[in-house]
Specification:
Number of domains of chain A: 1
CATH class of chain A: Alpha Beta
Radius of gyration of chain A: 14 Å
Distance between the termini of chain B: 34 Å
CATH architecture of chain A: Alpha-Beta Complex
Helix content of chain B: 25-40%
Bound molecules: pyridoxal-5'-phosphate
CATH topology of the largest domain in chain B: Aspartate Aminotransferase, domain 2
Structural class of chain B: alpha/beta
Strand order of the largest sheet of chain A: 3-2-1-4
Largest interface: A-B, 23 and 20 residues
Number of strands of chain A: 4
Structural class of chain A: alpha+beta
Shape of chain B: globular
CATH class of the largest domain in chain B: Alpha Beta
Oligomer: heterodimer
Number of helices of chain B: 14
Radius of gyration of chain B: 22 Å
Distance between the termini of chain A: 27 Å
Order of helices and strands of chain A: HHEEEHHHE
CATH architecture of the largest domain in chain B: 3-Layer(aba) Sandwich
Strand order of the largest sheet of chain B: 4-10-9-8-7-5-6
CATH topology of chain A: Sufe protein. Chain: A
Chain lengths: ~140, ~400
């Protein structure tokens, strides 16, 4: 087992060091906090959704480990321009990817080895859960 | 280096296990200690030879089980030098012990506006039960501040005490920082103000001798699983006079003398506080664990662990970007640390891939983490079965963390 290949691939390290869309959003239409009480990861995901149910802008802030931060950041890039249905569908597929099912999700495939570290799966899906909660009108979610 | 590790290593067969292709370096003893063979065998022997209930049967097996269970109580009494055996209440662990003291004593003795003093470095199990009581009954929490070095601010402590102080509840050793607190001074000051003192000995019981009569504490709590014993067993020590007047917390079998629908007559301590079938095997295992510790002796344990603490502190300090949180003058062999730019969770996973088991998180001490402005730390805790090799493996693993992450 080599943790650099399975968990800490270059893309994840890169997004951890310089996360994209890592800021609070003024006037989001939706936002929610995602907490992992076990390790203290704590993010807020912000979305601006237009009248056609399309996601125009996504950002996040907060703190946590490299896996959760890179996942949050990659998520914000992937969701931009997607409809709410597409976003929920991608969340579902990403959860499957993170728990060991094969999918072809482009850049998100750097999380395809996370399932080998079961306690880190929660990190990978934390911001996604927050996004899903935000779209359902909930203000907080927890992966415990 | 003392030869303690060489002498006892064979007692811990788990140390032979390979983790991710590496020999196991277990540095999470502050969460749960490993179990030596004599403890494992004592538990097994109990289930094999006397798997009966206690205090009930008139048959031989039950008599043997009762003798083993009460024998363990006497072992605990001697271990903490309690004056009387009925001062030893078996519980499921430190958490249950503190909740018992909170519910049976504090909830019935304190009045609205009375004050409970805790420290900023308590484990959640010595915060939440008190906070719950305060919310239900209007008691007030006062918090002893912690200095940048991770020591209690004793001057501030003394100024917190007043006529409404009814209880001071503090940990003897911090699970998150390793700080050894001056509990003698704290207990004496509490008493001088007419308050009682509860000591959380979850971390101290495995690494230093405890004498409840010398300390003069009113309550003391610890867990078996951190003391080389089984999970699900722990102890609440309380002075006999207190237990005598305390109402039970849980009701059920074994804690009564007689029951009718009109009236219930409660049993005497400690049985009044041990409703239902207790963790008999756990108590037997704890008794054996205590015998094991006493056979080694705290002189040797402390010498060994202080050596490891010194060595590991120096090793971590020499690594670039590593910062130790908690630099108290008196410490147990627990080291919390952070690496600039790396989240503790990532530290934990990477060192685990090198076979090094540490804890990463808030250590059930969130107020303390907040005090230091950190969401979490990585924590290496050393015990009797660790060696200098483990320090080297930790240092190499932490070096690898920096290589991968930075
Ligand atoms: C200082 C301290 N107090 C209390 C506890 C709670 O012990 P338990 O979970 O065995 O009830 C712990 C365990 O982590 C601890 O370290």
């Amino acid at each position: 087992m080599n943790i650099s290949d399975e968990l800490y691939q270059q893309t994840i390290l890169d997004y951890n060091r310089s996360p994209r869309n890592f800021h609070k959003m003024e006037n989001p239409t939706h936002f929610a906090r995602g907490l992992n009480p076990l390790c203290g990861d704590d993010y807020t995901v912000y979305l601006r959704v237009n009248e056609d149910d399309m996601i125009e802008e996504v950002s996040f802030d907060g703190h946590g480990c490299a896996v959760s931060k890179a996942s949050a950041s990659l998520m914000t890039q992937e969701l931009k321009g997607k409809t709410l249905d597409e976003a929920r569908c991608l969340f579902h597929t990403f959860q499957e990817l993170a728990t060991g099912k094969e999918h072809s999700l482009g850049k998100l495939n750097v999380f395809s080895g996370v399932w080998k570290y079961p306690e880190r799966v929660k990190c990978a899906v934390l911001a996604w859960h927050a996004m899903d909660s935000a779209l359902s009108g909930k203000k907080t979610t927890s992966t415990e | 280096m003392s030869s303690l590790y060489e002498q006892i290593r064979a007692d811990f067969p788990i140390l032979g296990k390979k983790v991710n292709g590496h020999p196991l370096t277990y540095l999470d003893s502050a969460a749960a200690s490993l179990k030596p063979l004599p403890v494992i065998e004592a538990v097994e022997r109990f289930y094999r030879e006397m798997p009966a209930n206690v205090h009930r049967g008139v048959h031989s097996l039950s008599r043997e089980a009762t003798a083993a269970y009460e024998g363990a109580r006497e072992t605990v009494r001697k271990f903490i030098n309690a004056a009387r055996i009925e001062e030893i209440v078996f519980t499921s662990g430190t958490t249950a012990s503190i909740n018992l003291a909170a519910r049976s004593w504090a909830a019935t003795q304190l009045r609205k506006g009375d004050e409970i003093v805790l420290s900023h470095m308590e484990h959640h199990s010595n915060i939440v039960p008190w906070k719950m009581l305060c919310e239900e009954n209007g008691f007030i929490l006062k918090i002893i501040p912690v200095t940048d070095a991770g020591e209690l601010d004793m001057e501030a402590f003394h100024s917190l005490l007043g006529p409404r102080t009814k209880l001071v509840a503090v940990t003897q050793v911090s699970n998150a920082l390793g700080t050894i607190n001056p509990v003698e001074e704290i207990i004496a000051a509490a008493h001088a103000h007419g308050a009682l003192a509860l000591i959380d000995a979850a971390q101290s019981a495995p690494c230093m001798p405890i004498d409840v009569q010398a300390l003069d504490c009113d309550f003391l709590a610890f867990s078996g699983h951190k003391l080389f014993g089984p999970t699900g067993i722990g102890v609440l020590y309380a002075k006999a006079g207190l237990l005598e007047d305390m109402p039970p917390f849980l009701g059920g079998g074994d804690m009564i003398l007689s029951v009718s629908f009109e009236e219930i007559c409660y049993n005497k301590p400690p049985y009044r506080f041990e409703a239902g079938t207790p963790n008999i095997a756990g108590a037997v295992g704890l008794g054996r664990a205590i015998d094991y510790v006493r056979a080694i002796g705290f002189d040797r344990i402390q010498e060994h662990e202080q050596n490891l603490l010194r060595g590991a502190t120096a090793a971590l300090n020499s690594l670039e970007g590593v910062r130790i949180i908690g630099t108290a003058e008196k410490k147990a062999a627990v080291i919390s640390f952070v690496i600039d730019g790396v989240h503790p969770h990532d530290i934990g996973s990477i060192v685990d891939s090198c076979g090094v088991a540490i804890r990463a998180g808030h250590h059930c001490a969130q107020p303390l983490m907040t005090r230091f402005g950190l969401p979490a730390t990585a924590r290496a805790a050393f015990s009797i079965y660790n060696s200098e090799d483990d320090i080297e493996r930790l240092a190499a693993a932490v070096h690898k963390v920096r290589e991968i992450m930075l």
